[in-house]
Amino acid sequence: MALAYPPFKSCPCGSGRSYGHCCGPLHAGAPAPTPEALMRSRYAAYALGHAAYVLDTWHPDTRPASVDLRDGTRYLGLRVRRAAGDRVEFAAQLRLPDGERYTLREDSVFVQVDGRWLYLDGRAPAGADTSADAGADTGPA
């Protein structure tokens, strides 16, 4: 179940803007203007439990049948490493259900379909260590 999130609070994506002026409008149906904006809004959707948004912004060729955002993972922070063209490289700090801290590093690819950006796929950036506590120096964004 998605969490209600006050529009005046800081956006979970780490942009420094309020949710109502950042990812909130995208979660309400506004199109993302850039791949980075879509990636940030998807991170915020994971953090807030908006599974429908995650699926709706995933390209149908690579979209899973469902996503389970109720496993107890906590989203601690996001850092965008690089955003250029249709790609966004990021590091997300997570706390797994067992309490272990984990850094997810991904180089994501986005495509435009009918004027809307969609997440196509992603892979670990070359040389990235995604093991527990790898990159813990990045901390929450």
TrEMBL record:
Output the InterPro entries linked to this UniProt entry. NTF2-like_dom_sf, SEC_C_motif, YchJ-like, YchJ-like_M
The residue stretches assigned to a coiled coil in this entry are none
Which segments cross the bilayer? none
Q: Which domain of life is it from?
A: Bacteria
- What's one Pfam family here? YchJ_M-like
Tell me where in this chain the YchJ-like middle NTF2-like domain is found: 34-122
Task: List, alphabetically, the HAMAP family matched.
Answer: UPF0225 (MF_00612)
Protein family membership: Belongs to the UPF0225 family.
In its UniProt entry, what is this protein called? UPF0225 protein CBQ26_06330
Q: What is the organism lineage in this UniProt record?
A: Bacteria, Thermotogati, Deinococcota, Deinococci, Deinococcales
